Amino acid sequence: MNKSIKIYIAILVFIFILILIASPSRQKPIDWRSTYSVNDKIPFGLYVFDKEINSILKNTKIEKVEAVTPYEFLEPKYNIDTLVLDYRIKGTFINISEINNIDDQSIKEIFYFVSHGNSAFLSMKEFPKYLIDSLKIELKNDFQYADSTAAWMANNEVSSKKYFLKESLETYFSKIDTANTTVLGYQGNNKNTKHVNFIKVPHVNGYFYLHTQPVAFTNFNLLKKNNYQYTENVLSYISKGDVFWYTKNENNESISNSPLRYILSQPPLEWALYLSLVGLLIFIVFNAKRKQRIVPILKPLPNLTLDFTKTIGNLYYQEGDHDNIIDKKIIYFLERIRNEYLIDTTKLDDDFIKKLHHKSGKEENDIRELVFLINEHRKSYHGSLEEDLIRINNAIEKILY
Fold this sequence. Notes:
Layout: H1 3-22, H2 47-56, E1 62-65, H3 70-74, E2 78-79, E3 86-87, E4 91-96, H4 104-115, E5 119-123, H5 129-135, E6 138-143, E7 149-153, E8 162-165, E9 169-175, E10 182-188, E11 195-203, E12 206-211, H6 219-222, H7 228-235, E13 242-246, H8 261-265, H9 267-287, H10 304-319, H11 322-341, H12 350-360, H13 364-379, H14 386-400
Helix pairs in contact: 1-9, 11-14, 12-13, 13-14
């Protein structure tokens, strides 16, 4: 073992010992991001709700809308038959997200869906502007300094209990259309305040259920004491029928799309990656002085096809068969055009000239002259002269080379 290899191994061992000292065994820090993703088991993910929704909404068919927007999902379901003019599906469209993740076109389609006797349940802190304006409601946000926010149902027959949800930003309805809106729930902090956080708003033949506490559906709150009961109470207002749950792009901006996301999220894998990179760097430094042996110069193989072509060309030229040579040059030229530029050479007209001009970048006049010579040759009934062969050959070379 030479000296450089010993130094290399010693440095790697030293770095490994430093890593062990710098990262003592400790618990992984809690990720408090509000992703509202059905795949996240962190406190503010929806993994638990995703697993338990079938037991909460019993005897209900639940369909996830993942790969498309609400508009792309609902619009094809509308039956445009003049005798029907209704959706082929019936039920409730639900969306649970911290921020508004529904585009304007989709929210308008949801309005149309609700107007045909269906319903929509939206639990979020930031509702689409079109919905707020159309339903004549206003929202207000207050920072919550208490450990939790109390939430309860307006109808004591549903539940008279207060449930305490972990929340830092208290969002509630500050203005509603009292003539048409039904209050279904309230929330408040330790100051005994009372704000509306759950309402029912009619729209044509259907209803909107709007809720401002999406944290009630997160892993943290569903697993805390009996808070799952509050979630059940809220969802008990959903009408009978199928449920279409929109889960696409929930807070996607907070999730990295890097292929190394999982590796960097796991400390052991992260340190293994860094150690590998450092080891690779040291290996490159210690081996940078090694010289590569001389690479022999290999002469390129002779182009026998080209030699054969020249021999055949000379044979035709010596025989004075100019027509045959011109025909083969034209065939070769058109074959090159088809293979390189993918242009149809059946008709050599103005359309062909323009296409070849745009794709090859050659002068249009040169192309037009060559097309003229080819067409004249094809129309000619008398034998071609050597001058004709030279003109066509020069014209072809201007385009190909």
